Amino acid sequence: MKKKFLLILMSLMFAATYAQQRIIGGNNTTIDQNPWQISMRGSGTYHILAARNQHICGGSILTPEWILTAAHCITNFNTGNVIGVNEITISAGITQRNDLITGQYRNVAQIIRHPNYNPATQENDVALIRITAPLNYNNDVLPIQLTDSAFDALPGGMARVTGWGNTLDGTAATPSNILQTLDMPIISNNSANNLNTGNVTVSNNMFALRLVNSGVSRGDSGGPATVLKSSQRFLIGCSSWGESPKDNKPTIYTRLFNYRGWISNNLQLPDITGNNLVCNTNSTYTLQNGTGNITWTASGNIQIVSQNNTSAIIRASNASTSGSGWLRATSNNGSTFTERLNVNQVEGQTPMSISIYSSSSNYIDVTINGGSGNSPYDWYVNNSFSRTTTGRTTTFYYTENSIRIEVRNQNTCGTGQVSAFFTGPIPGRYGYYRISPNPASTTITISKESATFGDFKSAEIGNSDVFGYQLIDLNNIEVMNGKGTFNNEKFDLDITALKKGLYILEIVSDKIKETHKIIKE
Description:
Thrombin, subunit H; disordered N terminus
């Protein structure tokens, strides 16, 4: 009988090469900083005395009754079957791994393993555990919101991992008694596959983390990887596998965004329903499956018109603002749920900008990048209206070497106007005047350039030492104008009185007009 118990313990510890178990190179943390972290333990009833209450895997609290972990954590690798509910218990609200007193301890009522879990390829390494009694939320026991965006796990981002585990690699190392935390860069799957040498592939259902001399090693499989977005942490992965040496090879996590449908089919997650696009008109958003008394908050570009315990009426703060925003429901039990929204723009929309993509002789071709895509577009050249187009490109005939182009159109909601500018020398042409320093805080110097530009020598453009100038801000308001006289090819312009910001300087002489961007520090 003792041999049977030992086999069960060994299978739960998942001694295979690829199992993730401990964090290397991490720092001590406390459970109130990661209150969704749980410890899965071998139960005292179904294990030999030495294995009772021994930490086996990590996991994350999704709701008061449901825990998310890795499929291999609840698989008996001798039989390939899901372990029995009496073989594990759940400990929540503990900082110290061996704490058997101050936390919340629950037995297990149900284990759901992903039906397509494959231990050979580590595909679909995710499972759900329902406990026998709900957890009581407090500062040390709170749920983590499941990611709702594929962008959360993009390469280049930072993910935080937590768990109790070895601070050194190798089989002789012992797990940490204090909860560990580590921030790790997300790397591309291609990079991870190039670094790995084994037969297991990092697939699209996984993502990889890597930090040299650090990593998740043998121990806390099933533990969380989280990202900070919209001032809140989101759960993007559970620890799955990795090659040795653990402190040099990528750490692989299950990409939980791909499993939102499967998870939602098995349990009721909190959810805020409503349109993803917030315009300057009232819209209602409703919290589903929330608990406790709810208070609603929102990002600065969203106005809450009214709220109650189950819903909030919101709108964009003004008609012209655009960007990302969020609406958050916070319960008096400490749990939060956030809906990430788009304010006056569609998801993934980049700010509108314009650029000159070619110039030939006196013709310049201009294109609009990003923006709402709403037409028509109104074009302005040097602050004067030029034309209206339905397309995103147009051509201007222009004889000077510097230009200010502005385009205006309606935002996605059609409730406000947005604009973009191009100001400066036209590509392929040379400027006649040079501005320095730029940026400047007190004085800028306007000087003549003696270089050839276009098809003309500077002497052919005009040698007058007298010129006019005008400074306007980005609201098209004139803030300064006058006449200047060059002294030794230079003129100093005092800008001390200007507020900090970006300005447009227009210089006009007898045969040339130039526009320059000026930054006042």
